[in-house]
């Protein structure tokens, strides 16, 4: 690139006044997490500070000197989105104490402080920071977008990768069925910290997701939202089918949608005639080995189905 081009600032051209998640970002076609960012900013509004962990959503949205964010935005390292957001909240509390009439800075209650991380940044490597933030009671909404692996670094498994999925660190082969663990139940783990509001949502139902963001932001204290967001690149499916696959994950019960308030389940999106999981597995490249070796594949699919059925029963998912 010539230095003339480098010196030009295109930021103004990229900014769309009515949007807080602006076009021009570098997400792949059909990116589920990018849709989640759009819905989060629409629900939270301009008066929002986002602390975003390293991962796809940071990389695709902030190539210097551009930014897709119409909100205030802090990029932080992979493991500390929750700590950075907690620090921002603590700073606002200090401003409030110093200037009770809020002449200098806005009242903390009027500012939305949101931490955003992928499943790797949240359920694995940033888990300690998240746990501390919730335990200390910061007034922060943490949103984990779940694309079921570490996508930005080339599809490594995380504790949200489903049973049977092939990733670069859970290869399928003669001795391996792919990933051999089920999704870690982050909603229950968050609720066990005694936080007032925990919910799951899917990008296939923007209305429900945005309502949950709005509701969470009204509540004082730590809140945790787990949003399901397929990745066509890492999962190996047609990029036109992102929303469809997110919806199927809900309809099969693999990803149950519910709310927990003060540790109790207060609402569950019930499912009539839950669909079998193999219909969701089949269109995805990461599960193709399960349909090649019938005997091994069938046993793995059965094991995954049993896990889903058990969880559905525990949650009262079936209508
Ligand atoms: C401590 C640390 N370990 C590893 C990395 C390399 N790294 C950057 S992004 C990333 C994966 C992020 O995965 P996830 O949080 O699931 O988000 P996604 O990329 O899927 O959006 C990794 C491993 C890092 N930056 N810092
Ligand atoms: S790799 Fe997946 S999560 Fe990352 S930008 Fe592309 S579609 Fe989105």
UniProtKB/TrEMBL annotation:
Gene3D superfamilies listed in its UniProt record: 3.40.50.970
EC number: 1.2.7.1, 1.2.7.11, 1.2.7.3
Keyword Nuclease: no
Entry keywords, A to Z: Oxidoreductase, Pyruvate
Alphabetical list of SUPFAM superfamilies matching this protein: Thiamin diphosphate-binding fold (THDP-binding) (SSF52518)
Superkingdom of source: Archaea
Residues in Thiamine pyrophosphate enzyme TPP-binding domain copies: 54-227
Pfam families linked to this entry: TPP_enzyme_C (PF02775)
Molecular function GO terms recorded: 2-oxoglutarate synthase activity; pyruvate synthase activity; thiamine pyrophosphate binding
Compositionally biased residues, Polar residues: 158-171
Primary enzyme class: oxidoreductase
Region (Disordered): 158-180
PANTHER family attached to this UniProt entry: PYRUVATE SYNTHASE SUBUNIT PORB
Record's subunit section: Heterotetramer of one alpha, one beta, one delta and one gamma chain.
Protein name: Pyruvate:ferredoxin oxidoreductase or related 2-oxoacid:ferredoxin oxidoreductase, beta subunit
Source organism of this protein record: Halapricum desulfuricans
Gene name linked to the record: porB2
